[in-house]
Design goal:
Shape: globular
Subcellular location: Nucleus
Structural class: mainly beta
Mean pLDDT: 91
Number of helices: 4
Helix content: under 10%
Low-confidence stretches: none
Order of helices and strands: EEEHHEEHEEHEEEEEEEEEEEEEEE
Pfam family, one: CAF1C_H4-bd
InterPro entries: Glutamate-rich_WD_repeat, Histone-bd_RBBP4-like_N, WD40/YVTN_repeat-like_dom_sf, WD40_repeat_CS, WD40_repeat_dom_sf, WD40_rpt
Keywords: Nucleus, Repeat, WD repeat
Length: 324
Amino acid sequence: MLHNVNMPWPCLTLDILPDNLGSERRSYPASIYLATATQASRSKDNELITMKLSSLAKTLAKDEDDEDDEEDEDEDDDNDHDPILENETIPLKSTTNRLRVNPLAKETGEYLTATMSESGEVLLFDLTSQFKAFDTPGFIVPKQNKRPMHIVKNHGNVEGYGLDWSPLIKTGALLSGDLTGRVFLTTRTNSKWVTDKTPFQANNSSIEDIQWSKSENTVFATGGTDGYIRIWDTRSKKHKPSLNVIASQSDVNVISWCSKIDYLLASGHDDGTWGVWDLRNFKPNTKPEPVVSYDFHKSPITSISFNPLDESIKSNNKRKKQKN
């Protein structure tokens, strides 16, 4: 299946809104709910965009001999499968570097969504009304749901890219990392959001990605421009990493924690290499090697992810070179 969506501005980030249509659906036409945010030429033109894409038909391979016959078919048959795009927008004041939807949204019914802004602010939204509007005819999103429910200002004017919701803490726990190596923890207690004033920090190298553990609700990992993967525990009073492992001589751009086997962590690097690590080998004063490592990419790895349904499958993406 392949469909192209033309956005009003470039988007640096994208995430899926969990739904109740099934994890392994294979029937067509398909539907999917997405959230993204823009990088507009003027700050005031930026938006957070929530979308529902439906009537997505399967892409069929065409035989050259059949092309002439297919052109004579009734055009109405094709129109029956035209994709449908619906969207709800929220105005933003700055470019969004990264957006993350709470993975527990389907379970809690609360579509908590965080954005890491170029301005340094971390905005927290509840997109429950936007999600409801797509499947409830006549429903209008209330004005208060088009504003952030909370703003994390602890990063000052320092932007960042690391952002992740805990997959275990139902009340909401968010980690955000910036270019100066600081990671702040924001949690909710009694409907109030609170950010720990003391950041987790190892040095001044930028935090490029953050991943919460899939099995321990106080443990998380970071990847940074210093080439290190670090394992942290939110219970640490010193706010220092528990384990430090050099993963690459270049930046660690992205990491992914396997949800099926909780001791596997994948990392993608700026030199085009990527690998999978066994966290059981992460011990103090040791230099563990990845379980597997690959170098066939020739450009920086910009995304990496385990299949949430099969630990043996992993996907990654590289940055394309642009020609002037």
